[in-house]
Amino acid sequence: MLELKHISKYFPGVKALQDISVDFREGEIHAILGENGAGKSTLMKIICGIYQADEGTVVLDGKELHLKGYKDAINSGISIVNQEINLIPDASIAENIILDKMHRFTKAGFVDWKGVHEMASKYLKMVKLDLNPKMPVRHLSAANKQLIQIAKALSSEAKVLMLDEPTSSLTQYEAKILFDLVADLKKQGVIMIFVSHKLEEVQAISDRVTVFRDGCLVGTDTIENMPRDRIVQMMIGRSSSYIYRGRLDAENNEIALEAKNICSKKYGFENLSFQLRRGELLGFYGLVGSGRTELIRTILGVDKMTGGEVYVNGQLAKTTSLSDSLHKYHIGYVTENRKEEGLFLDYSIRMNICMNSLQKDYISPTLPLISSKKESKNAEEYRQKLEIRAPSIDTKVGSLSGGNQQKVSIAKWLSADCDIIIIDEPTVGVDIGAKEYIHRLIWNMAEKEKKAVILISSDMNEMISLARRILIFKDRKIVNELKGEEFFARPGEEISAEIGKSFI
Q: Phi/psi at 492 (nearest 5 deg)?
């Protein structure tokens, strides 16, 4: 058994955890839930030695632990799979899997590479990856990188395995592989701590659930006694549901963005076309890899377009980069990968929010100097407007919770005053409270500010709550289009069923 007794942790101006006592049992999947900033990540870091508690003790199998770092945790049989991709890009798959255990394969200064590759191959097979262990990880997909992180954690043969949003980058097929592995580890008696914002996953695989709110433990109970409504109520102190938000009536507005017969040799799609109107909220729905994100990256110039044309406000657009899309055509793109592509984690909230609009708003017309006063005023305005929880605008973005990082990522493009905004998986890894706020923010962009918005999401409820026209993607094709204000006023179950038919 792993026991946490009266754990408290303080940061400047913040009580991250207050008198937390909870136990995790052998052969149990124990879910930890809570809004962003509730204390889940801090708790995980204390368990694996990255942080040390200011008060309280961590006890494993009756022995009090004094962990000074993650290496101590590994040596004590504790391992973690992080939501963020923490791999060395230019190292091989095998080197990444064995990195924290390399001493086992080193003798007299020489590495047993045969043993390293054999061990890596063993754990790659466990996560159903048919890859050469000598291959560098840099060019692998986010999903494959996440599975490699899982293989790395499994290779530690840990007594305690923590999974922090492990499916955020995975397809349904890959998530099933993970859950089958978790079921096997449960039979072997491994203690598993599972953090996820996907309540369906929690209810499907967990034995017990513990809920945090504002650094405090709200309660722990068996999954049988924790229906969704009760979990939500404990997490945010209020009920939550997806609602019909009303009409947008954008059918007759001018066309802001049009893609005609777009082709990509890299992604293998041909002749994909769509129109986006001012004040419209257009949904791109489909599974990961279905072509949704790939199409957007192609028309924005991130990846090469091998055929077709793009028009912005009726004029032919030539985009070869995100910089072109932003500065020439006022198009913003909130990427799904905020950690690697969307934010500078080692820099401040102020720098991240203002970086896309420095030239326009903060650099003097006579001298190439940035006005720190204007920059600070703008950043503080968006911090308050989006309710970004942080001590100040000079706080490093990397220290924020996932939901607050996502708010900074969105604020960056709002600050640039884009007319067209594309938002890719806006609430992946985001708690219910932050999710509701982001949904209202996206809706207001279209309804009140009359921006042209594309929402890319694999979350069915998110899609039907926000979009008022949906393009369904499958196998890199647009296989269906659902539209009509009256259609979206129907019950959510009927809309979901209609969408589901597109995948049969």
A: -60, -35
CA 87 to chain centre: 17
3-state secondary structure of 499: helix
On the question of pLDDT at 114 being above 60, the answer is yes
Q: Is 114 exposed, middle or buried (0-12, 13-18, 19+ CB in 10 A)?
A: exposed
Cβ(423)–Cβ(411) under 8 Å?
Answer: no
**pLDDT tens per residue, range 323-336:** 889 889 999 999 88
Q: What are phi and psi of 317, to 5 degrees?
A: -110, 140
* Cβ density class 264-290: b for 16+ within 10 Å, e for less: beebebeebebebbbbbbbbbbbebbb
Please name every residue paired with 92 in a beta bridge, in sequence order, or none if there are none.
136
Task: Give buried/exposed letters for 39-63 (b at 16+ CB in 10 A, else e).
Answer: bbbbbbbbbbbebebeebebebeee
The order of strands in the sheet holding 477-483 is: 331-334, 420-424, 452-457, 281-285, 469-474, 477-483
Gyration radius (Cα) of the chain, Å:
24
Rounded CA-CA distance 206/463 in Å is 26
DSSP structure class, residue 198: -
Helix (H, G, I), strand (E, B), or coil: what is residue 155?
coil
Query: Which structure tokens are listed for 450?
Result: 């009359």
CB neighbour list of residue 331: distance below 8 Å, 6 or more residues apart:
257, 300, 312, 325, 418, 419, 420, 421, 422
Confidence label for 201 from pLDDT (cuts 50, 70 and 90): confident
Quote the pLDDT of residue 329: 93
Query: Residue 355 carries which DSSP code?
Result: G
500 — phi, psi (to 5°)?
-60, -30
Work out the number of other CB atoms within 10 angstroms of the CB of residue 12: 6
Residue at 206: amino acid letter: S
CA distance 485 to 489: 7
403-448: per-residue pLDDT in tens?
788 889 988 988 888 999 999 988 876 767 777 888 998 999 999 9
Q: Would you mind telling me the total number of residues written for the chain in this entry?
A: 504
- Characterize the bridge pairing of strands 331-334 and 420-424: parallel
Helix (H, G, I), strand (E, B) or coil at 173: helix
Tell me which residue of 154, 160, 231 sits closest to 3, measured CA to CA: 160
* Cβ-based neighbour number of residue 422 at 10 Å: 26
**Continuous H helices in 244-371:** 292-299, 322-329, 349-354
Query: Does pLDDT of 359 surpass 70?
Result: no
